[in-house]
Amino acid sequence: MVWPRVDGMRSLELGTPGEMRAWLNGLVVSGVKTATTGLLAEYAAETEGLEYPGERLAVLDDDGAPVATVEITGVEVKPFMEVTWEHAAAEGEGGASLDDWRAGHRRYWSRAGTPVQDDTPVVCLSFRLTQTP
Questions:
Q1: In whole angstroms, what separates CA 43 from the centre of its chain?
Q2: How far apart are CA 114 and CA 133, in angstroms?
Q3: Cβ contacts of residue 18 below 8 Å, gap of 6+?
Q4: Quick check: 64 pLDDT over 70?
């Protein structure tokens, strides 16, 4: 996740640029994706504070253009292994179980060079779609 500002709002760039980001953004715009999970360490590296309920974020495409605005409805920091199925399912990415979700996220973060352990702190964001361009 990266947090540039758009029209005074912080922004959200989901996944990696290209096909993955386009797919995730499509899930947000369609209302299927109402949650995401990030590594707490990314916030420290980017010197960003956590989102807060009521905050609005611009969801950006690969070119930095907004594709939607979401409002944060929940923020939880917890160990990776404590992420619930309710949160994982709200990510809308089609996993059949919590084990599938964990395996997919482990693969993603490992490929990104930041493998996670069971106790790795993650930030679970819940949101609702408020606007599309």
A1: 12
A2: 33
A3: 62
A4: yes
